[in-house]
């Protein structure tokens, strides 16, 4: 599967991932993804850069190694967290305005 959840919101993404897990249970599958949430529960992750496998392991193993995967994961997490905080600030401002 190539980016099966690339253009959906996080709730829909989780529903799709659950369906994929059920359908592909007890089978081998290849999932190509840029979102770490899509692959973090995989039995084995291959980190491919410039057509070469640079790292391989579980999500936890790759984070512990602190190489390519770790760098991209922490960057994506920071960006997603920053968006969440920005949205939260926006809603807090709206709610504050409604209290007047």
TrEMBL record:
Gene3D superfamilies: P-loop containing nucleotide triphosphate hydrolases (3.40.50.300). GO terms for molecular function: ABC-type oligopeptide transporter activity. This is ABC transporter domain-containing protein. InterPro entries: P-loop_NTPase, Type_1_exporter.
């Amino acid at each position: 599967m190539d980016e099966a959840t690339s253009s959906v919101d996080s709730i829909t993404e989780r529903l799709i991932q659950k369906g994929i897990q059920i359908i592909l249970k007890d089978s081998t599958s290849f999932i190509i993804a840029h979102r770490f949430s899509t692959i973090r529960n995989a039995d084995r992750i291959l980190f491919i850069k410039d057509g070469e496998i640079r790292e391989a392991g579980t999500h936890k193993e790759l984070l512990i190694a602190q190489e390519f995967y770790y760098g991209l994961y922490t960057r994506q997490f920071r960006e997603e967290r920053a968006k969440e905080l920005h949205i939260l600030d926006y809603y807090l401002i709206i709610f504050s305005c409604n209290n007047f």
